[in-house]
Amino acid sequence: MKIHYILISILIFLSLSAFIPHFVSHGHLTHTPHYNGGSNRDGIGKYYPYMALDPEYAVPNEPTQITFSVQDFAGSDVYDIETMVEIYQESTGERVKGFPWTVRDIGDFNLYYVFANPGGYEIVLSIANDDKMVNHNQLDAPRSILSSISDCNCQRVIFNVSISDSWGLVRNSLLVISILIPIIVLGLVLGRTYLKRRNEQSVSRMVPEKETLKYVIMLLAIAGGLVHLAIFPEHGSQQIYYSVFLMAAAGAQLAYGILYILINFTSESYTGNNRKFILSQYRKRVALNLFGFIGTSVLIGLYAYSVIVAPPLSPDNKSESIDMAGIMAKAVEILLVVGIIYLIKWEKKRVDKMLVTPK
User: Fold this and answer.
1) CATH 2.60.40.1930 location in the chain
2) DSSP H helical segments within the chain, as ranges?
3) Alpha carbon of 276 to those of 95, 279, 350, 351: distances in Å?
């Protein structure tokens, strides 16, 4: 059993390594931008600004929320700052929108804009060094050098964004493919291994019972883990605790699937009349199945809770939206729970029958 603990430790370490980058502060944004948005690495003056678009994969001719979060270098809120925001079209250098100098009670604020055309845009955030030295409620003149602070007692940072009609569809398609391909490959490998074992064991007339179901359960468990890994970049970025939860869920499901391989296909089956050995094998399988049953049931329950009411520590205090990845994950997990329940009952009946059979 030592190998099992080593395996779990490795999976936990890999999981922790995966979400360590998400501990980096990302301001008060509802999510860490992976596409449109981010932060200026060096900050500007005494401030550290963040920006994100919502929706992140913004499309032309639809309202887009531009969220800014300005903090100091300690990650604390800043108050009573004066800002100006400009949007330039990258291809022409034309300023297509400007939001005049405005006093912000706090560094977190939202602006709204409809991008008319697909392509690249540059969003320029200006922060006054001294609000007495800027043109209140007015716009500065457009500039050919966007970062220039000539004739402005301010600091400026530029965020590059891309507006596309199709990139969101491409991204979602790649997400589905990234989930399906590993599952299909894994299913083919397990299917081939299963057929090989069946052929070998049919010769000796010792084909284990319910072996097909065991392969299905193993595949479903690993598939559930892969789905959680696939949705991690988007959902995990909304809140650090989501990162911990998603990686823990993925690690537990992958560990369960791999442990299922180790226990069910590398250990001896119920053979002979050794009562102690039979009970030992049975307890291993029960412990493994209960781990899968309880853990998967908790995941299903938490998902149901999160789509009905706002989950704890939600960044926007809203319930989660139902998406295709979530439906896929829960469908896999429901099938997994049904299979585990059936297998637990079958194992119990089988062992009871073996223990009462006359030696």
Assistant:
1) 31-163
2) 2-19, 167-204, 211-235, 240-266, 275-308, 324-356
3) 80, 5, 15, 12
**Which residues lie below 8 Å from residue 251, measured CB to CB, with a gap of 6+?**
11, 12, 14, 15, 225
Share of the chain above pLDDT 70, in %: 71
Average pLDDT over residues 40-59: 84
Quote the CA–CA distance of 192 and 188 in Å, as a whole number: 6
User: The tokens 């050995």 sit on which residue?
Assistant: 277
The alpha-carbon radius of gyration of the chain (Å, integer) is: 28
**Residue found by looking up tokens 């690249």 in the block:** 120
Question: Which helix (H) or strand (E) segment is 110 a member of?
Answer: strand 108-114
Confidence of residue 98 (pLDDT cuts 50, 70, 90): very high
Task: Mention the CATH class of domain 31-163.
Answer: mainly beta
Task: Return the top range by mean pLDDT from 61-70, 224-233, 273-282, 342-351.
Answer: 61-70
Q: How large is the average pLDDT for residues 257-266?
A: 71
CA angle at residue 68 from 237 to 37, to 5 degrees? Answer: 50
Which residues is 37 bridged to in the sheet?
Answer: 52
Q: What predicted TM-score, i.e. pTM, was given to this entire model?
A: 0.57
Whether residue 347 has pLDDT greater than 70: yes
AA letter at 319: S
Q: Please report which helix (H) or strand (E) contains residue 86, including its range.
A: strand 79-89
